[in-house]
Amino acid sequence: MGFDLQSWGKAKSEAGDYFQNNVWWWRPLAQYVIEQTKCVEKFDEEGWSYNDNHLVPKETARAIAKQLRYLIKSGHTKKYAMAWDIKNKQMEEANKKVREELEEHCKSVKARLKKPNLAPNDFPKADSDKWEKIYNKINFDAYYPFSVQNVKDFAKFCEECEGFTIG
After folding, report:
1. Contact at 8 Å (CB) between 25 and 6?
2. Sheet holding 18-22: strands in order across?
3. What pTM value is reported for the model?
4. pLDDT tens sequence across 49-97
5. Which residue from 76, 94, 150, 164 lies 20 to 30 Å from 29 (Cα-Cα)?
């Protein structure tokens, strides 16, 4: 699943014709645009979370581009990216411990049942429930990257497009 943004009409350049991010890249970019530019109306925010052809008019795209250019030039985007990386590293470290806990639980169950190829889905209910409880500690936000370059690319797209759809 990805997010493809296509201009409504003839863009000023190829960069304004099309912008693509997979879901992992799009989610933090959309969050940054919504929270930091203040160009997306509250009632439009949900449309930025789905690839269902949500319309963003030219005027909004231009306002987003202007605000993003300011945020990039002021150093805000770089600081935000650095903070994002630190937070992600912390989450990845926590996730590593969760994966180790999952692995230990699996080894324990397989050894106790003497079934080395048993999958967690086939564990007895109590063991399966414990596996699920451990698994649910994984913070998937750790897998969403954010970069200044992605913001620059999106700003250029917004600057050059004739409005766009998220889909």
Report:
1. no
2. 18-22, 2-7, 164-166, 54-56
3. 0.82
4. 988 889 999 999 999 999 999 999 999 999 999 999 999 999 999 999 9
5. 94
